[in-house]
């Protein structure tokens, strides 16, 4: 295990260490810890499988164990951490199946939300959604793009005024954030998403429910399949690299020969 993933504090780490905890109101402490850990997972300081030990985290951030537990529960609910009884918390692995399933569920729920919301859109709500669509299209920073992407999608469904549906969608967006960031690593895929967002908004603006639902389902299922293939291929490549040293045939033993006539 590398220094960058061997618990906390990250003494001797070769990569960026975890950020320290600024002075914040007590109510915000757990959220700030969760944000700091999430950022360290995103930038690779904390790799999948890295331990997230409560006592070490509490020392690192100079807080009690209570906000650390709350932060880990939040990260677990968002899919960033995995907590097991008697084993503690670790950074959750990236899963091809989970990525695909998240987008499958989103496709069903967001299609439902569009059907409820489109008849209730007003010129003002459409202007707000278009503004968010353009902001996401112009955004190149992955962290900001993730937030703008979510804001655009949710703006399309806001007129439905379904708070429980909105809560479920927000949770799915958070759970899918790690996977969306993978997609953003390929510039052409962001361009494709931007075009799909524009087509989706145009269908909503025309109040074409069937077209909008078809577009959002294709958009989300396509993203899920893309991520599934990417993660599956990466896992296969990693497995092949791990197995390679053991699959090579042993080298033939060299025998030293003596020149004739000596």
Task: Walk me through the topology.
Elements: H1 26-42, E1 51-52, H2 54-61, H3 65-77, E2 81-84, E3 88-91, H4 96-117, H5 123-138, H6 142-157, H7 163-175, H8 177-184, H9 187-205, H10 209-247
Antiparallel strand pairs: 1-3, 2-3
Helix pairs in contact: 1-3, 2-3, 4-7, 4-10, 5-6, 5-9, 9-10
CATH architecture of the largest domain: Up-down Bundle
Biggest beta sheet summary: 3 strands, antiparallel
Give the number of domains: 2
Poorly predicted runs: 1-15, 254-262
Give the beta-strand count: 3
Overall residue-averaged pLDDT value = 84
How are helices and strands ordered from N to C?
HEHHEEHHHHHHH
Helix content bin: 55-70%
């Amino acid at each position: 295990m590398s220094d960058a993933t061997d618990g906390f504090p990250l003494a001797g780490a070769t990569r960026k260490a975890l950020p320290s905890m600024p002075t914040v109101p007590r109510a915000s402490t757990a959220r700030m810890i969760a944000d700091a850990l999430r950022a360290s997972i995103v930038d690779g300081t904390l790799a999948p499988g890295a331990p997230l030990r409560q006592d070490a985290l509490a020392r690192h951030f100079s807080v009690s164990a209570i906000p650390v537990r709350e932060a880990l529960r939040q990260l677990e609910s968002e899919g960033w951490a995995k907590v097991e009884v008697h084993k503690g918390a670790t950074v959750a692995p990236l899963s091809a199946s989970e990525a695909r399933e998240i987008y499958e569920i989103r496709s069903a729920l967001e299609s439902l939300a569009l059907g409820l919301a489109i008849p209730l859109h007003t010129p003002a709500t459409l202007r707000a959604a278009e503004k968010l669509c353009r902001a996401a299209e112009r955004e190149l920073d992955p962290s900001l793009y993730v937030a703008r992407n979510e804001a655009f999608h949710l703006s399309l469904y806001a007129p439905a005024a379904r708070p429980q549906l909105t809560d479920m969608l927000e949770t799915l967006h958070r759970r899918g954030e790690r996977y969306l960031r993978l997609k953003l690593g390929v510039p052409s895929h962001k361009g494709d998403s931007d075009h799909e967002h524009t087509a989706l908004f145009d269908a909503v603006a025309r109040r074409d429910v069937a077209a909008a639902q078809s577009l959002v389902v294709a958009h989300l299922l396509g993203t899920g399949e893309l991520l599934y293939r990417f993660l599956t291929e990466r896992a296969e490549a990693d497995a092949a690299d791990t197995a390679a040293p053991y699959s090579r045939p042993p080298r033939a033993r060299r025998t030293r020969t003596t020149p004739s006539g000596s």
